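Lab notebook, bench 4. The sequencing result for the construct came back, and we need a structural model before the next group meeting so we can plan mutations. Quick request posted to the team channel:

Model the 3D structure of this chain.
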Amino acid sequence: MEYDVVIVGAGPSGLAAACRIRQLNEEISVCVVEKGSEVGAHILSGAVFEPKALNELFPDWKEKGAPVNVSVTGDDIYVLKNEEKGQKVPNFFVPKTMHNEGNYIISLGNLCRWLAEQAEALGVEIYPCFAASEVLYNEDGSVKGIATGDMGVGMNGEQKDSYMPGMELHGKYTLFGEGCRGHLGKQLIEKFNLNEGKEPQHYGLGIKEIWKVPAEQHQEGLVVHTAGWPLAENGAAGGSFLYHIEDNQVVCGLITDLSYDNPYLSPFDEFQRYKHHPVIKQYLEGGERLVYGARAITKGGIQSQPKMHFPGGMLIGDDAGTLNFAKIKGSHTAMKSGMVAAECIAEAIKAERANDDVTEFGEAYKNSWAYKELWAQRNFGPAQHKWGNIIGSAYAFIDINIFNGNLPWTLSDPVADHAQMKPASDFSPITYPKPDGKLSFDKLTSVFLSNTNHEEDQPCHLTLKDKDVPINFNLPTYAEPAQRYCPAGVYEVMEEDNGDKRFQINAQNCVHCKTCDIKDPTQNIVWVVPEGAGGPNYPNM
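Done. Here's the predicted structure in token form:
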């Protein structure tokens, strides 16, 4: 199938790009492929939303009924000192990037569903249930488009009765907006050496739940962030969020920086502990947990952002790492990157160009407010990694509040997250408390609430470069951390009757968070796309 523009991923960057292209030129044909069962099924974010990009894309978004309804009414930031004590930080000492006046608490999944409706009204073709599994190239090496994966292939590679071959989608230009650690984006960065001269990308794992809570505990519009305990107790960094949305619902989550060094750390169990802290418990106690999910975020900032354009295409959104970690927000910058890409591509197609390198995108992006915002706040992430959440935030206050991000240096963060892992012999195992079934829960019960489903008789999408590494190297060296860093219980070390150990992959549990692809210390696990429509089915994350 031939299109002018093919877009991979119906997230905020891809959909914003699709809408903007058609706004500029309704003669340009645009196709969006989405691996989820529907638009929004795989979208997970906090999310406090800054409407700057949306204001530009659809100035009348309120009249059009965008699901952006809950204004932020209060900002509370706490430093949790231990499992009982927390200190509220006076607003004056908070980096201004963390202030949320004029922002909204939203479901990013629902916003993407709405953006898809706007895109289709503009004439964009959107195909959910189709996973882009391969980049296609022209003879000159430029990107030609993508191929979607075959459907109905059995675990052993045989074609089943339901077999349906994948499709080739060719475009003059292809935009990749797969989100954090995109499967194809990762390949493109390597093929075109897009990260030359850049620092390693850095990541966090965000785990999130939605709760229905008693009305007397609910404060619509309240935003609560925390740092410190529980992660700091085990030498890790990160922070939590708790947002009061409409209908007496609260979203809460914990972001664990994947730069941690202790292989016994379990981000999932740290999140369960966090909900028992009095600062958090006061809002959740007596409530009902409705939804669970997890997703990695790209947070290396400008220092780690690869070159975003190459012959025949571009990386946009979190495929390129456009999230602003200092704000704990990325939807607005992701959308803007897609809109800038759209404007450059529309001009290129107008000039009857195709499959070349739209180099002007680099300059246009650097001149955008999105890049300038990320540049001003470039030192936030490295400061957190160098000095921890407390001192790092104190540095950020000076850098951002006083000097507006114009200090004449750029901090470095040169060690990749997977390389931070230290041998298990340097640590003692962590004994986490058993879940109480009221505030804290086990992994399998949680995964059930993500509505995750995969066709079981299909090739495993969690591939190993060397099948012997987990047991022969990772287990004796790192106590096989995949058992703990995965928030969905995908990886287990099983013991056979004869005492031998076996590495088991429960691929049907996978919520597509990408943590394994990022944090495996030997980089032996490679996440590839399963059949389209597989994975979580988030209703409103």
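The CA atoms of residues 473 and 480 lie 8 Å apart.
Will bring this to the meeting.
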